[in-house]
Amino acid sequence: AFAKLPEGTVETLLKPENLPKLKAILTYHVVSGKFAASKVVKRSFLTTLNGQRIDLKVAQGKVHVDGATVAKADVMASNGVIHVIDEVILPSSANLAQTAIKAGSFKTLVAAAKAAGLVPALTGDQPLTVFAPTDEAFAKLPEGTVESLLKPENKGKLAAILKYHVVAGRVYSDQALQAKSAETLQGERVEISVKGGVAMVNGAKLLKTDIEASNGVIHVIDSVILPPTKTSQATGCPASRLLESAIKEGAELYNAGSPEGCAAVYEVALRSMVELGRAYLPGKSRERITHMLANLPADADDKAWALRKTLDGLYGKIQRAPEGVHENAK
Q1: What is the rounded CA–CA span in Å between residue 35 and residue 78?
Q2: What is the predicted pLDDT for the residue at 287?
Q3: pLDDT over 90 for what percent of the chain?
Q4: pTM across the whole model
Q5: Which of 11, 13, 184, 233 has its CA 20 to 30 A from that of 161?
Q6: What are the structural domains, with CATH classification, of the chain?
């Protein structure tokens, strides 16, 4: 099996500088626990000490492990069992960022990760699970949204959105569906479910799952998902509470596949802010919001994103307002 590798491969792997790569390959051939052939044939995969999974299948009376065939099974040892295979099987050696770049359908995601400063995490040693929106998913956002998020002044907002698509650890699709939810690096949880036979992450459809990388796994989704707002410390300010509640409820509706419902919640919140008056609204916010509400786009997705952008901006201004600005409204 080793002799089948390209000439010089074994010698290269045995060099001290290639020890991590050699270890990754060898641990990809080892599974924790004792699996006799009678158990192996009942499994479709096993998780290796490398962290990645090997695929198992039986065809024409033979057991196949990834691209290799079991030549001899059940060689018993005092601390386990050995199955002899006819090929060296290789784990994915590309990290998450490299895997996304190679796929060619995540150009916007990669550009966004660079702008948000998240590339080190995607190329690091800590395993991560990425729910990756395709370029088409980003293209579904209202015109100008991606360009706006890529601006340096919006780095924090962009990072929060991207982190809402990332979970710590290597989580495969069957594990995610069993768990039903997962905490993201952004701090909030995403919901994983099956609706009408389609696997979903919040309101986004899973298009392809379990794409292996050396430091994690990628699941492809068809939409960008929105994180709810972080709860503020300004619990005494009714305006902050109103906006937090609206953003949370609206994001849940959007992620559940209802941009219309999301837009409706956001619009009601902003109209309520206008009605509350200047005591709650910093600067010329009232005039700007009134103008924006009078010129909303017709498309539900575009409307939801336009309203959310205004809500986020207003919420940030209220949070940054000097203490006492809202005292007349308490």
Answers
A1: 13
A2: 83
A3: 62
A4: 0.73
A5: 233
A6: 2-85 (2.30.180.10), 96-221 (2.30.180.10), 238-329 (no CATH)
